[in-house]
């Protein structure tokens, strides 16, 4: 079940996870998971960054469809 405490425990145990992994783990939508993660972001307990995406071409005409993943990391404050 997707709750603030369950997401806290999941990230504290795993260190970091993608938005997609969190949504799948809790059988929820990415939007619902993001709302819970936004709570922890506002409290300074979670850090968000993007990983991957892009095709590595130097040209601005890159047409690859790869999107960066949202990664969330639990911070020990």
UniProtKB/TrEMBL annotation:
Pfam families: FeoC (PF09012). Gene3D superfamilies: Winged helix-like DNA-binding domain superfamily/Winged helix DNA-binding domain. InterPro entries: Tscrpt_reg_HTH_FeoC, WH-like_DNA-bd_sf, WH_DNA-bd_sf. It comes from the Bacteria. Residues 4-73 form the Transcriptional regulator HTH-type FeoC domain. This is FeoC like transcriptional regulator.
């Amino acid at each position: 079940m997707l709750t603030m405490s369950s997401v806290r425990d999941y990230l504290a145990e795993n260190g970091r996870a993608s938005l997609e992994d969190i949504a799948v783990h809790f059988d929820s939508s990415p939007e619902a998971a993001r709302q819970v993660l936004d709570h922890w972001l506002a409290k300074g307990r979670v850090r968000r960054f993007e990983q991957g995406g892009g095709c590595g071409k130097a040209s601005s005409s890159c047409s690859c469809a790869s999107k960066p993943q949202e990664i969330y990391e639990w911070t020990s404050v």
